[in-house]
Structures are given as C-alpha cells and as structure tokens.
Design brief:
Layout (H helix, E strand, L loop, with lengths): L12 H12 L18 H10 L6 E5 L7 H6 L3 E6 L2 H11 L5 E6 L12 E6 L8 H11 E12 L8 H12 L6 E2 L1 H10 L3 E8 L20 E7 L11 E2 L3 H7 L4
Parallel strand pairs: 1-2, 1-4, 2-3, 4-5
Antiparallel strand pairs: 5-8, 6-9, 7-8
The structure holds S-adenosylmethionine.
C-alpha cells in the first residue's frame, strides 16, 4: 500500500525542511517560521513525560519517527529502537544518521495504519505529533496489535472540541486544510472509553487547553469539555480488537464557527 498511498506526496523533502525548522525553534514563545503561531514542543516536554511514566525495558517502536529526532532520548534509556514513517524523505534522513547505530534495529517506510510487524512485537510504542495525520482508529488498532500485553504506549493528538476563542487553533485547522495536510481530530473521551472497554489501562491523560500549551507543558489532568491537544499514556491489556472510528476530519469547533457540515 505505501507506494500508492496519495498522502505520501505531502510528506516530502519540503515538509522535512519545514519540520526541521519548526523543531529548531521549538519551545515556548512564538514561531518565526509561521508568523503568529505558537512554537511546537521541544524534546524536554517528552523527557518529562517519560520520566514520570517510565518505559518497559526492551524494545520501542516509534511511529512517525521523522529523521530520528527522539532516538537519542530512547537510546539513553537503553531501549532497542525501531522507527517507522510514511515519508520516504524522512526515512532516508533517519537512515542516513541512524542506520547501523548501536541500539537502532530498523527504520521502515510504512504508514501507521499498516505496520509490517507481527503481533506483540514491542515492549513500548511512541507516536508523537503524528496521530492527527492518520486514520486514527486504524493506527491505534495497529499500535495495540504490534505491542505485547503490558506494553507502554504513548501518543498525542488533537481534540475535536477546542475553545471557540482559540484563534491560533482555528487558524491552524484552516491552514492545514488549505495545504491539504491530512488532519484528524479525536473524540478523546470516546477513545478513552473504547480503550478501557477493551481492557487497556489509561495511565495518564494530559490535556493541553490551548494551542501553545503543549510546548509550555501547561496541562490539566482530566478531559474537561474543551481542550486542544492531548497526550495519553496507556498500558496495553491482554487482548485487543479492531477499534471503531473515533475521529473526524473537521473539529466540532470548526463546524460550530464555520457552519461546515461536510
Ligand atoms: C509533525 S511530524 C512529527 C515528527 C516527530 N514525531 C516529531 O515529534 O518531531 C509528523 C510525522 O508523521 C509522519 N506521518 C504522517 N502521516 C503518517 C502516517 N499515516 N503513518 C506514519 N507516519 C506518518 C510524517 O512523515 C512526519 O514525519
């Protein structure tokens, strides 16, 4: 499937350069790359999460690994790292820096929705700043399939109901759609319910109220009605099943504000 997936065109060299520039300026404050937007989160935010909710020893799969930005952090925990990404440009960049390095097992070009790994392959899985670009129910179903019972799973996404006056979030949603950026918003409460119904443990729910709050690690620990981004930490249960849909290409906020009914 990966060679004919039309979404792959989006994740090209130009996007690689764009995301490198965003990561270079990551941290609190305002972006120079996209005027008016908040900066994206830097590695220290994830460091704090991993320190609070530790990895299992053993292996880790990163889905949407880009050029291996987070590999040094995983390797510092002694994990055996496999990375995968839908983008040939990203995978080429990651292989250039990381192929054959100690602790790096493989770097694979594949979409999150079709992971070419057997069931129960990994002790940990991370998917950071990527799930919102995927067909989420398929991707999370795959996360649960390729991890073993007891595995730690960390992923982030965008909630489908954010504050109506969060102009940055609204403009980002419109901008992404304008650029044809694959973009999906999660019904986070429904996802959490579904995970619990399947017997997975939800260890932590970080909700970041507004765009920019993730970079500032400004979070609330519950799913209030409205928030913009989330980070979930899950322990995989003994069994898993295919998840039904729980995301949408339009946020409820966008529909409220624009009257879109597509
Ligand atoms: C915003 S970047 C985040 C990269 C990295 N995780 C980070 O936090 O810096 C999104 C990444 O997801 C990858 N991606 C997008 N859609 C994907 C999909 N369906 N399956 C796997 N990777 C995907 C892109 O190629 C890109 O590398």
């Amino acid at each position: 499937m990966s060679d004919i997936d039309p979404r792959k065109d989006y994740w090209n060299d130009k996007y690689l350069e764009y995301w490198k520039a965003r990561v270079d300026e990551a941290g609190q404050g305002k972006s120079q790359v996209v005027a008016g937007d908040s900066n994206t989160e830097d590695d220290s935010v994830y460091q704090r999460v991993f320190a609070r909710h530790g990895f299992n020893p053993g292996s880790l799969l990163e889905v949407g690994c880009a050029w291996g930005r987070m590999f040094p952090l995983y390797l510092s925990y002694g994990l055996k790292v496999t990375g995968c990404d839908i983008s040939r440009a990203m995978v080429d960049a990651a292989r250039k820096d990381w192929a054959g390095q100690d602790g790096v097992i493989d770097i694979v070009e594949t979409p999150a929705e079709h992971l070419p790994f057997p069931d129960s392959s990994f002790d940990n899985l991370a998917c950071l700043a990527t799930l919102d670009a995927t067909y989420q129910h398929q991707a999370v179903t795959e996360f649960l399939r390729v991890t073993r019972p007891g595995a730690r799973i960390y992923f982030t996404g965008k909630n489908d109901l954010y504050f109506a006056d969060d102009q940055e979030a609204y403009l980002a949603e419109i901008g992404a759609r304008g650029k044809n950026h694959p973009n999906f918003f999660t019904d986070t409460r429904r996802l959490i319910d579904l995970l619990r119904q399947q017997g997975h443990r939800v260890d932590a729910i970080y909700c970041f109220p507004r765009r920019g709050d993730f970079a500032a690690f400004n979070h609330v620990d519950n799913t209030g009605e409205r928030f913009y981004e989330y980070l979930l930490v899950i322990t995989r249960g003994d069994r898993h099943a295919v998840l039904p849909e729980f995301s949408d290409a339009y946020s409820k906020t966008f529909r409220e504000l624009s009257g879109a009914h597509e």
